[in-house]
């Protein structure tokens, strides 16, 4: 489990009555491991479980990392963190993962956020203001004014940057935002590249609104998290017996050759063999473990992130891949 690191919490920031930001110190020797792109997330060990939380800090802000956690009713991970983690505590963390990030920060961006969905959007927004040149429009929905995370910071950024427009939607004032309302708000900005993060009904309404406006699907990017069923900090059981596949793996400039049990997932097998293969959620939801099949064939048991173009290029999720042929070659290069 060499990708598991222990970070110290330097500060806990109370953002709202039910949202906290954890600020982590990253030792200089781990700076490269925790280098991240705006919109990515960290996987944290939260008590007896593991949860993924988006980074609300931006890479240009310094070496400290910040994730923001909002309590959810009955949510084990969020409540455990808010109740137990204090400054000075240590938390086991996996390196950053995720693909919810713009290819260019010079693009005009239309950002939809609902509730704590502002977390990765905030990282993208701050980076675009610092590094990019495009127009930025944020449509941010919350229950009421007290629920607005980063409200003061957003107001300050909007005052400082003319190319940032922030549109707040408060449920207590306007009711729940539906497709028709979001379509009207987004219409002047339909040519922008869109990024969506928030509760499922909010994102579904925003996605329908953008489709109604003719925004191409490849310009709409959605970030969603569900609670992890398994714990990526724990080793998976090793199967015994059965058929095997000859496996060749190119990783970190070195070729490794193994006999791979057909009933064992590729990532689990590589970790068992002591290789430092990348991963995060281990459930097919984040793409941190993506690799390329250069020969042979595998089957993915679950895939919630790769599209048909990725798959056509041979990209697979190692955490969900089992072999189908006698020989398989894989590269992480």
TrEMBL record:
InterPro entries linked: 2Fe-2S_ferredoxin-like_sf, 2Fe-2S_ferredoxin-type, 2Fe2S_fd_BS, Beta-grasp_dom_sf, Cbr1-like_FAD-bd_dom, FAD-bd_FR_type, FNR_nucleotide-bd, MRET
Keywords in alphabetical order: 2Fe-2S, FAD, Flavoprotein, Iron, Iron-sulfur, Metal-binding, Oxidoreductase
Every 2Fe-2S ferredoxin-type domain range: 245-333
Cofactor or coenzyme needed: FAD
Domain FAD-binding FR-type: 2-103
Pfam families assigned: FAD_binding_6, Fer2, NAD_binding_1
UniProt cross-references to PANTHER family, sorted A to Z: 1,2-PHENYLACETYL-COA EPOXIDASE, SUBUNIT E, NADH OXIDOREDUCTASE HCR
Protein name: Ferredoxin--NADP reductase
Taxonomic lineage of the native organism: Bacteria, Bacillati, Actinomycetota, Actinomycetes, Pseudonocardiales
């Amino acid at each position: 489990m060499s990708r598991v690191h222990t970070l110290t919490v330097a500060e806990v920031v109370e953002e709202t009555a039910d949202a906290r930001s954890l600020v982590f110190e990253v030792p200089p020797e781990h700076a490269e491991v925790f280098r991240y792109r705006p919109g990515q997330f960290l996987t944290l060990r939260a008590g007896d479980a593991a949860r993924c939380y988006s980074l609300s800090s931006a890479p240009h802000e310094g070496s400290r990392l910040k994730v923001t956690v909002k309590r959810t009713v009955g949510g084990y991970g969020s409540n455990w963190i808010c109740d137990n983690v204090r400054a000075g505590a240590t938390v086991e963390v996996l390196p950053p993962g995720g693909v919810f990030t713009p290819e260019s920060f010079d693009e005009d961006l239309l950002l939809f956020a609902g509730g704590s969905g502002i977390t990765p959007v905030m990282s993208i927004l701050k980076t675009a203001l610092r590094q990019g040149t495009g127009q930025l429009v944020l449509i941010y929905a919350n229950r009421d004014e007290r629920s607005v995370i980063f409200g003061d910071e957003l107001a300050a950024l909007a005052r400082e940057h003319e190319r940032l427009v922030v549109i707040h939607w408060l449920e207590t004032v306007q009711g729940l935002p539906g497709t028709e309302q979001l379509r009207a708000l987004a219409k002047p900005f339909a040519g922008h590249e869109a990024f969506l993060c928030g509760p499922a009904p909010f994102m579904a309404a925003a996605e329908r609104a953008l489709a109604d406006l003719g925004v191409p699907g490849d310009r709409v990017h959605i970030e969603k998290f569900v609670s992890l069923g398994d714990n990526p900090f724990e080793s998976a059981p090793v199967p015994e017996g059965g058929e095997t596949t000859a496996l060749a793996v190119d990783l970190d400039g070195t070729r490794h050759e193994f006999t791979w049990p057909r009933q064992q997932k590729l990532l689990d097998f590589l970790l068992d063999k002591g290789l430092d293969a990348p991963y995060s959620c281990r459930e097919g939801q984040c793409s941190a473990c993506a690799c390329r099949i250069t020969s042979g064939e595998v089957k993915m048991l679950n895939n919630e992130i790769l599209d048909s173009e990725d798959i056509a290029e041979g990209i697979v999720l190692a955490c969900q891949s089992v072999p189908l042929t006698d020989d398989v070659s894989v590269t992480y290069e």
